[in-house]
Amino acid sequence: MRISMILAWAGVAMAAPAHAAVTGTSEIGFATENRVEIAADAASLYALLGQPGRWWSGAHTYSGDSANMTIDAHAGGCFCETIPARAGPSGTIEHARVIYAVPGQRLRLSGALGPLQGEGVVGTLDMHITPAGKGVRVTMTYVVGGYLRGGAAAMAPLVDQVLAAQLQGLKRVAESPAP
């Protein structure tokens, strides 16, 4: 399972947002930053953040379907996924825990995402919404620290690429005409 998750994270093929970068690596962790401008108002975009089933890629889930993902956007809330019974038993996974929530401005979560969950690390994912142009700018940073068996420098670009793809998914859904 661990190898397949790493390969899935490595196989991202979506366009990068306006800014994507690994901003630092060391023996004990890494930091990434992705930024994109979105033609939407802050309140609507913040509400959409709480609906990852609409914008997170199903290829980067444990169940294979992002519709099984939710974020309860208040301190202590869960970024969780339900794993329905298919060929095996059903289950659930906590991707992260909400540690800071200010509607229309910021959503911060603590958790080791994807293949990092099997490592000895902690991560802080911060999504900051600020006014920009005819909408908002979303800056997504992810800071990870701890022990990574494959090394932080090797994992950082893969994680950055996956998070950039999720931010592009958020932009695509936020700017799509309402059905």
From TrEMBL:
InterPro entries: Polyketide_cyclase/dehydratase (IPR019587), START-like_dom_sf (IPR023393). Keywords: Signal. The keyword Signal applies. Pfam families: Polyketide_cyc2. Residues 1-20 form the signal peptide. This is SRPBCC family protein. It comes from Sphingobium cyanobacteriorum.
